[in-house]
Design brief:
Blueprint lengths: L11 H16 L7 E5 L3 E3 L25 E10 L4 E7 L5 H15 L3
Antiparallel strand pairs: 1-3, 2-3, 3-4
C-alpha cells in the first residue's frame, strides 16, 4: 500500500527562508565553515564485469558473476560548500555515528588550515 505524501506545513516556507538567511550571513563571515556530508550505497570491490562495459581500449578480464565481493567499501563525502572542495573517504564499517565522526576528524586534520 502506497502512503499519501505528507501535506506541507504552513511554517515550512518560513523555516527554509530562515535557513537561507542564516547561510547567507554565515557565508559572509571569514571564520565561517559550511560543509555538506553524506554517505552513499556500499561499493563491492572485486574482479567484476560492470555489465560488460569497459572504459579502456580493450575489455579487462572479469568474473562472470558478482557473487562474492572481495571487500565492501562505504563512501563518505564531505563538501566544503564555500570553497568547492570535495573529499570522498572510504570506510570498511557501516554508516555508524563513529564512522561519521572518524571521517570528519580525518578531514579536519587534513583541511583545518584552509
Amino acid at each position: 500500500m502506497q502512503k499519501k505524501p505528507i501535506k506541507p506545513v504552513e511554517e515550512t516556507d518560513a523555516i527554509f527562508e530562515t535557513v537561507r538567511q542564516e547561510n547567507a550571513q554565515s557565508d559572509q563571515r571569514p571564520d565561517s565553515l559550511r560543509i555538506s556530508i553524506g554517505t552513499k550505497a556500499k561499493v563491492n570491490v572485486g574482479p567484476f564485469s560492470r555489465r560488460g562495459h569497459s572504459r579502456g581500449a580493450c575489455a579487462a578480464a572479469a568474473a562472470d558473476h558478482d557473487f562474492k565481493p572481495e571487500h565492501k567499501r562505504v563512501p563518505f563525502g564531505i563538501l566544503d560548500v564555500m570553497g568547492g572542495w570535495l573529499t570522498i573517504l572510504f570506510g570498511t564499517s557501516r554508516e555508524t555515528s563513529d564512522f561519521i565522526v572518524d571521517c570528519l576528524q580525518h578531514w579536519w586534520h587534513d583541511n583545518h588550515e584552509r
